[in-house]
Amino acid sequence: MMIDDAPIQYWSSETERNAYNAAFYELGLRWHWDRETYCQLLRQSQDGPERVCHYLSTHQPHLLRAYDARSLAEVIEQKKEVHQQRELSEGLGSRRYFNWAESRGAELGA
């Protein structure tokens, strides 16, 4: 018997993507990973910090003059984990979506 786990995989992926966007917002980064960007980064690496480093080098290289990519990636990963655990602990039934792309904040390194 085969179980279609695509909805579970999708929800898990969206939960992680939303957690990244929450971490960016919390850290004052005016970044937003839409589904297409996130999927492209997933194809680059399954390792979170490597994905963030790749994004930094390709989309935010100006930040690399002031910040160490690996250190910034680790801080983002720590914040992402907190947001992801909060989302997972609330469960699918109580999931609330916040559109991080529409939020306002100061851009780091602008």
Written description of the protein model:
- The chain is mostly helical and 110 residues long.
- It is built from four helices and no strands.
- Helix 1 crosses helix 4 and helix 3 crosses helix 4.
- The radius of gyration is 15 Å and the shape is globular.
- The relative contact order is 0.19.
Number of helices: 4
Percent helix range: 55-70%
Mean pLDDT: 80
Q: Tell me the series of helices and strands, N- to C-terminal.
A: HHHH
What kind of sheet is the major sheet?
none
Whole-Å distance between the termini? 53 Å
- What portion of the residues fall into strands of 2 or more residues? under 5%
Rg calc: 15 Å
Question: What's the assembly state of these chains?
Answer: single chain
- What coarse outline follows from CA principal-axis ratios? globular
Number of strands: 0
**Low-pLDDT runs:** 1-8, 105-110
Structural class: mainly alpha
Task: Please give the structural blueprint.
Elements: H1 6-26, H2 35-44, H3 48-59, H4 69-90
Helix pairs in contact: 1-4, 3-4
Short account of what is shown:
The chain has 110 residues and is mainly alpha-helical.
Offer a few descriptive terms.
single chain; 59% helix; 110 residues; globular; mainly alpha; disordered C terminus
